[in-house]
Design brief:
Layout (H helix, E strand, L loop, with lengths): L1 H37 L3 H7 L11 H8 L1 H33 L7 H13 L3 H12 L18 H14 L2 H9 L4 H12 L1 H17 L2 H6 L11 H10 L2 H4 L14 H34 L4
Helix pairs in contact: 1-14, 3-14, 4-7, 4-10, 4-12, 5-7, 7-14, 8-9, 10-14, 12-14
Keywords: Cell membrane, Membrane, Transmembrane, Transmembrane helix, Transport
Pfam families: BPD_transp_1 (PF00528)
Protein name: Carbohydrate ABC transporter permease
Length: about 300
Amino acid sequence: MREKALKESTIWQVVAHMVMIIGSLLALLPFVLLVIASFTDNQTALVNGYSFTPEKWSLAAYEYIAAQWSTIGRAYLMTILVTVIGTVLSLVITSTFAFAVSNDKLPGHKVLMFLCIFTMLFNGGIVASYYIYSNIFHIRDTIWALIVPTLLMSPFNVVLVKNYFTNSISPSILEAAQIDGASVFAVFLKIVIPLSVPILATVGLMTAIAYWNDWTNGLYYLTEMNGADLFTIQIVLNKINENINFLANNSELAATAASQLPSTTMRMAIAVIGILPIIIAYPFFQRYFVKGITLGGVKE
């Protein structure tokens, strides 16, 4: 019986590994194709489509990006700035709110948690949000248009962090610190935050990816007339997809005819540049990701 159970366990492990390998390849191959397409000759891509073995290779897309780095590079730097500011502010707001509602002794903590969950399920829609942010908060054509709407605090992240605080940090540690004279802020900064690195790293990574990939806020709240300097790399890529003349109409690109642009492969090259920082950063946070999601997603 023991040998039979061991054999079945081995078979299941082999099958599981094969499934995971196939799934990993299916997830990885699109990125490989994206990189190869960015090094493909533009005319070859137009005629034959994208291929893992293109007939002709070319660096034209990257050469064009390098030549126009003042436009694309500015968008790239703006993306980094928005991602850093937005992620830091989001972590501060999310962690402080989650710490407050995780305290059962806080008056009204159930009401606050209900309001948080309610916003996860219901909202006023795009029209109401646009009116409030544009006419009341006046964030149009400002950097806050890329930071505040929809991304600054996620109720889902609040729930993850709250559950982590509740299930992974012993209340006796917090009570002992308060007995020793530590204030609430001291307890939060010196005890709760150091013990919550896994969940904060997990939430921070998800928030950073959301900010990095976001283009809808720029579409809604930034105009080419007054907000072009705030365009992020994703917004620029979206503009290219909508109208390849977007780059040609800039003063630095006016002398270049739209027909001469490596439009097809340039989209791929900008996409590669756009996702490169996330790919580089992910391995440093991956060890926290599973632990943070697992512990933060459990509610006793």
